[in-house]
Specification:
The structure is a homodimer of 106-residue chains. With 106 residues, chain A is mainly β. Chain A is built from no helices and eight strands. In chain A, a hairpin with a 2-residue loop joins strand 1 and strand 2. The two termini of chain A are 18 Å apart.
């Protein structure tokens, strides 16, 4: 469990890193660090629980199934992903880490 | 409802500012901006719901009832405040804004 959001940044930048900041019954808060990764072209997340995400460093684009325009997220931008909303990460910054905070409600 | 965490920073720095980023049944996510404010000496928060806080800019100290040492929070530090835990804000940075993100589970 990470004690600080900016601590222990992943050394391996070839894949996304997922670390919990909090995990209690009914609530999980996670740090995600991306380095240019994106979801595979035909991959869609479709989650049983609700998720709220905020980008704190870097930038990213989300694709929501059935929507033509991407959701661009820069530092401070947040987005609500209700359970069942099909989405994928279309892109993340390639010039440095993108740090997300994700609040999951299972 | 704020669209970006760093948008619309409060012009009035003489009091703390509270703005929701998300409010759905069972989950509320709030930005708090402090400018040197602290809780009154004998005031204690004692909340019905759980709260998770993270300081993203600035710094702050929390006092937990019955604990001798303060909880110091710098950028990236987070803290879990379960329902009923009596606490107060002992201090916040006086040289600039302290930006908190608070996740409330009523």
């Amino acid at each position: 469990m990470l004690k600080n959001l900016y601590a222990s940044m992943p050394a391996d930048t070839t894949r996304e890193a997922f670390d919990d900041l909090l995990a209690v019954p009914g609530l999980r808060i996670e740090r995600i660090v991306s380095h240019g990764q994106e979801s595979p072209p035909d991959f869609w997340y479709e989650q049983d629980g609700d998720e709220w995400v905020i980008v704190l460093r870097g930038r990213a684009a989300l694709e929501v199934h059935g929507e033509e325009t991407l959701v661009w997220l820069e530092a401070g931008d947040h987005y609500w992903i209700p359970a069942g909303l099909r989405h994928r990460v279309a892109s993340t910054a390639k010039d440095g880490p993108t740090i997300w905070l994700a609040v999951h409600r299972p």
